[in-house]
């Protein structure tokens, strides 16, 4: 049977790949959405934090024998701690200013991180093996699905759901949201707002690092892996609505599928289709698909 | 008798005058290395190319003891045509640089080639790949030294097709270079009795190729030709293994370097065919030079870096031979002299600027076969110079009269 | 009494502007004999680009992430006219600038409805589309770039391949652009822009069609950015994808920020610094350029928010320093 000129087998295969990539986009955009949604900071260092997360995993494996499973926790921890330092020493002075300065600062930090890693490791990148448990694949009939890719979907979506739940449905999340909207009131209630803000930024960075560890076995771990993806991630978050966690997740998934379909019918444009969508969405829905204010 | 003496005196003085004219300006030769020091090509060219140039200059000064001084300047063009153009102009107009070398990235190579012609200086291109350098954009002050898309595609495609890989599918980077690689390889495949079942173009640069690889898989082709380079090639290979595409189907990397293999590891690249202009482990001479290079750079040389040494050395020897750095004369001398060093045996520089030399068809070893680090290739065949490069009869260079 | 005070400071501001202009002209006139002309021309092109960007961000308060589309797009158009159609340089420049303006009108019309970060992201998205198109169209030469753009003969008479002649032409064009921006800033139109930047709801309540003013500012900025790109393609005789890449959009932001947002000379100083550093560092630090650029971003944002000119201005004039984009 043929759908739009290609076999249904091929079509479903591409659709599944699109969903896999979509869940990856979702977890990748989650950290950015949290940081912007709650803190109003445009974290351009997100791509660098993703890259450092992948490198920490690789360094851990190569020099310290830290395996993949442990890295899934260690890497976000390390990057999160670094983010705490950044927030305390630099970012917090910029909250009262225009968005622009937070963006520029994080952009500068991203350049520094990228440059340092390029100098230390070169640009060809390092190989990271798929962990043994997840090697091999399953023949689904219409395509061969690597087990690791299925794992990506499971891991990414689980973390997304848990994060969304914590922020939107628990009292911790409610406090967090309140703290960022009316810090003065929340502070008056005795809650340490600055600590919550720092923790939020660190959490966003940790999520980026987590995505980095997920990506390491699939894409070469190299210093420019983040900067190639960063504007796509931004587009995802903007389309989803910059205040919305659910928006980022759903948009990430949707975009993966649309990108996947574009790769089937007009592959050369698959890198630019997301921007076309972004412009169209912003024209129709100014605050993004699920955004809260214009 | 007196007439004879006068004649002798006159001719002697004429000779002296001529010798006095043929001098190296300012008693110094300045070599500029314009390369990508920090971007995507910094591993295949970059700082390693600078090291190779330094080695060439040191060896030249030690072995040839010339009467002139040799200096080197280097700069990072960051793969941007206008930074390269600016630097080249500055070097030629203000800093008395005589020759611009390396020039990886086609837009850089093309731009500097033009500027060199304008300023009557020389361009020695090692890193850039495009055949346009010796076809549409050719001029008489440029030498394209190490390789081009035709040579690498030709070698691999021909060998693989002849060896039984008749059905091909191409995964192509969607820009001029990728298209050129695909076209060159397609022509060769067809000429050798193979067929191209289809191709898919991916945005450049890409990161996830699963979707495109799936298409390649479902095409039923035996050979998937990777008409891309660098990070794209690396990720394509990695993901092809992940999706079980290899080893059932084989991959042919149309432009690959030893640093790519090093980065991926033998497990992922084993049995792949590729064509390079140099391999450090070819013979005693290459091993000796490469070990010296390794001592300074900590990685084995790529063909671009080895070619850089070779081109600079050839240039310096030419300058010494005629004791002049005049562009036209040096070019003539370089073209007259065959290239005979560890990099090339009986290499010659054609009128279109192409330095033709043997290329090598290599196959990546299986992990068990590799005894030492960087021991990656089995040499399957040597492609003689006359066959490896685009023949002059097919040249689109205006300098070549038909 | 207020009006007397106002007119005095306005007159003082005018005098200062004239002095700045005069100083610029003097420095620029002798510069090519002191420094390398091609370097100076590069600085002038980027200075105009940054000034155009500053008009939009520093005075209208609109952050655009897509200015490379005008800069690079016009570079291609001018290059194509000069190389493939044989048009003389001054006409090609005008065409390039006009293209920038037209593209700016399109971008502006789409983006103006939104504000802040959404506005910026729309400009980025549109610029990415331009980048994609630049890669696909044959005439741009794609990754290889548009090579061999002739400098031609100015007005069909003066040969521009001479560096000094080309320099004075570029300098003249720069001065014209700079003067235009200055006039715009100090005109009633400019005042309204500043009012919109400082408090948009109030400007709307005063009856101004805010969207139209923003659009006009955007078009002017895009036209001059296009002019800068067109000039650059003639100076270097090449136009490439790097010119339309978002890194170039980022670069102009850095130049404006470093020099001083919302100041007149800031972007010029910023362009001089960045281009100079790039040039200087290319030879010496090689692969550490990215790190140094990043460190400069960070320093600027943390410590020198007003930029070079802004900080100097703050030292000398306490009361008349222009506010930066500290408030929106």
Topology:
The complex is a heterotrimer of chains A (294), B (402) and C (328).
Chain A: E1 2-3, E2 6-7, H1 8-39, H2 46-64, H3 68-89, H4 99-121, E3 137-139, E4 144-146, H5 147-169, H6 171-181, H7 183-188, H8 193-215, H9 225-240, H10 245-265, H11 273-284
Antiparallel strand pairs in A: 1-2, 3-4
Chain B: H1 2-21, E1 28-35, H2 46-64, E2 69-76, H3 81-93, E3 99-102, H4 106-118, E4 122-125, E5 142-144, H5 149-162, E6 167-173, H6 176-191, E7 195-202, H7 210-218, E8 223-227, H8 230-242, E9 250-253, H9 258-264, H10 266-269, E10 273-276, H11 284-297, H12 303-322, H13 327-336, E11 348-349, E12 355-356, E13 359-364, E14 377-383, H14 385-388
Parallel strand pairs in B: 1-2, 1-3, 3-4, 4-5, 6-7, 6-8, 8-9
Antiparallel strand pairs in B: 10-13, 11-12, 13-14
Chain C: H1 2-34, H2 37-59, H3 68-84, H4 89-111, H5 116-136, E1 153-154, E2 158-159, H6 163-186, H7 188-198, H8 200-205, H9 210-236, H10 246-259, H11 266-284, H12 289-302, H13 307-316
Antiparallel strand pairs in C: 1-2
């Amino acid at each position: 049977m043929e759908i739009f000129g290609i076999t249904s087998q091929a079509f479903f295969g591409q659709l599944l790949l699109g969903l896999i990539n979509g869940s990856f986009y979702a977890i990748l955009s989650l950290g950015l959405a949290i940081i912007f949604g709650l803190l109003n900071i445009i974290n351009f260092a997100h791509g660098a934090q993703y890259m450092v997360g992948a490198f920490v995993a690789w360094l851990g494996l190569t020099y310290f024998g830290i395996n993949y499973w442990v890295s899934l926790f260690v890497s976000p921890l390390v990057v999160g701690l670094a983010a705490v330092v950044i927030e305390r020493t630099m970012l917090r002075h910029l909250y009262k200013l225009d968005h622009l300065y937070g963006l520029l600062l994080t952009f500068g930090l991203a350049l520094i991180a990228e440059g340092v890693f390029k100098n230390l490791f070169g640009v060809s990148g390092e190989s990271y093996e798929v962990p043994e448990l997840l090697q091999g694949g399953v023949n689904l009939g219409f395509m061969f699905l690597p087990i690791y890719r299925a794992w990506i979907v499971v891991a990414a979506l689980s973390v997304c759901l848990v994060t969304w739940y914590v922020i939107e449905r628990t009292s911790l999340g409610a406090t967090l949201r309140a703290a960022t909207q009316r810090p003065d009131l929340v502070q008056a209630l005795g809650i340490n707002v600055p600590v919550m803000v720092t923790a939020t930024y660190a959490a966003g960075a940790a999520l980026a690092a987590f995505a980095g560890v997920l990506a390491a076995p699939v894409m070469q771990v190299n210093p420019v892996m983040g900067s190639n993806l960063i504007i796509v991630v931004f587009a995802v978050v903007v389309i989803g609505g910059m205040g919305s966690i659910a928006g980022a997740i759903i948009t990430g998934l949707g975009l993966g599928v649309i990108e996947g379909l574009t790769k089937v019918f007009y592959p050369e444009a698959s890198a630019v289709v997301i921007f076309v969508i972004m412009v169209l969405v912003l024209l129709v829905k100014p605050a993004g698909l699920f955004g809260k204010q214009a | 008798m007196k007439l004879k003496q006068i004649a002798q005196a006159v001719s002697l003085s004429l000779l002296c005058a001529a010798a006095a004219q043929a001098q190296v300006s300012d008693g110094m030769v300045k070599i500029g290395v314009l390369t990508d020091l920090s971007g995507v090509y910094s591993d295949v060219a970059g700082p390693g190319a600078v090291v190779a140039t330094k080695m060439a200059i040191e060896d030249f000064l030690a072995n040839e003891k010339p009467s002139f001084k040799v200096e080197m300047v280097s700069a990072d063009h960051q793969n941007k045509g206008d930074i390269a153009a600016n630097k080249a102009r500055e070097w030629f107009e203000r800093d008395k640089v005589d020759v611009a070398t390396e020039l990886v990235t086609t837009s850089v190579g093309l731009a500097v080639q033009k500027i060199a012609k304008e300023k009557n200086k020389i361009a020695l291109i090692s890193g850039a790949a495009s055949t346009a350098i010796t076809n549409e954009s050719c001029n008489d002050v440029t030498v394209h030294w190490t390789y081009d898309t035709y040579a690498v595609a030709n070698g691999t495609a021909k060998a693989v097709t002849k060896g039984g890989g008749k059905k091909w599918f191409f995964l192509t980077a969607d820009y001029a270079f990728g298209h050129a690689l695909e076209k060159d390889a397609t022509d060769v495949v067809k000429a050798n009795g193979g067929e191209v079942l289809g191709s898919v173009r991916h945005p450049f640069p890409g990161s996830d190729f699963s979707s495109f690889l799936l298409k390649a898989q479902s095409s039923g082709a035996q050979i998937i030709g990777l008409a891309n380079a660098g990070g794209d090639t690396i990720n394509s290979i990695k993901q092809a293994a992940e999706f079980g595409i290899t080893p059932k189907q084989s991959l042919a990397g149309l432009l690959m370097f030893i640093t790519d293999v090093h980065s991926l590891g033998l497990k992922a690249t084993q049995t792949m065919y590729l064509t390079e202009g140099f391999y450090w482990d070819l013979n005693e001479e290459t091993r000796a030079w490469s070990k010296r290079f390794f001592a300074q750079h900590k990685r084995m040389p790529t063909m671009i870096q080895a070619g850089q040494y070779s081109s600079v050395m050839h240039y310096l020897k030419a300058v010494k031979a005629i004791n002049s750095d005049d562009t036209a004369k040096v070019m003539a001398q370089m073209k007259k002299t065959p290239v005979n060093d560890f990099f090339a045996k009986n290499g010659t520089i054609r009128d279109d600027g192409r330095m033709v030399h043997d290329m090598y068809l290599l196959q990546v070893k299986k992990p068990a076969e590799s005894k030492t680090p960087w021991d990656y290739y089995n040499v399957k065949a040597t492609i003689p110079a006359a066959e490896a490069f685009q023949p002059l009869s097919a040249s689109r260079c205006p300098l070549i009269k038909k | 009494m207020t009006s007397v005070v106002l007119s005095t400071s306005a007159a003082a501001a005018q005098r200062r502007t004239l002095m700045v202009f005069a100083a610029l002209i003097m420095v620029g006139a002798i510069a090519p004999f002191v420094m390398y002309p091609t370097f100076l021309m590069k600085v002038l092109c980027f200075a105009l680009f940054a000034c155009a960007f500053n008009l939009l961000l520093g005075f209208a308060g609109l952050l655009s992430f897509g200015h490379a589309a005008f800069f690079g797009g016009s570079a291609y158009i001018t290059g194509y006219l000069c190389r493939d159609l044989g048009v003389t340089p001054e006409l090609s420049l005008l065409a390039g600038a006009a293209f920038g303006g037209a593209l700016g009108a399109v971008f502006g019309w789409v983006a103006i409805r939104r504000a802040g970060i959404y506005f910026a992201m729309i400009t980025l998205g549109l610029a990415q589309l331009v980048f994609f198109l630049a890669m696909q169209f044959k005439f741009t030469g794609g990754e290889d770039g548009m090579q061999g753009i002739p400098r031609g003969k100015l007005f069909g008479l003066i040969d521009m391949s001479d560096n000094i002649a080309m320099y004075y032409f570029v300098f003249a064009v720069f001065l014209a652009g700079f003067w235009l921006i200055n006039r715009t800033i100090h005109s009633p139109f400019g005042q309204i822009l500043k009012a919109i930047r400082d408090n948009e709801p109030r400007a709307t309540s005063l009856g101004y069609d805010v969207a139209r003013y923003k659009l006009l500012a955007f078009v002017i900025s895009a036209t001059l950015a296009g002019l800068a790109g067109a000039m650059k393609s003639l100076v270097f005789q090449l136009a490439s994808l790097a010119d339309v890449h978002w890194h170039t959009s980022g670069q102009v932001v850095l130049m404006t920020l470093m020099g001083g947002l919302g100041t007149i000379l800031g972007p010029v100083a910023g362009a001089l610094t960045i281009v100079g550093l790039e040039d200087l560092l290319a030879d010496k630090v090689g692969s550490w350029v990215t790190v140094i650029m990043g460190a400069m971003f960070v320093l600027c944002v943390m410590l020198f928010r007003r930029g070079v000119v802004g900080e100097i201005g703050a030292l000398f004039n306490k009361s008349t320093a222009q506010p930066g984009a500290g408030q929106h």
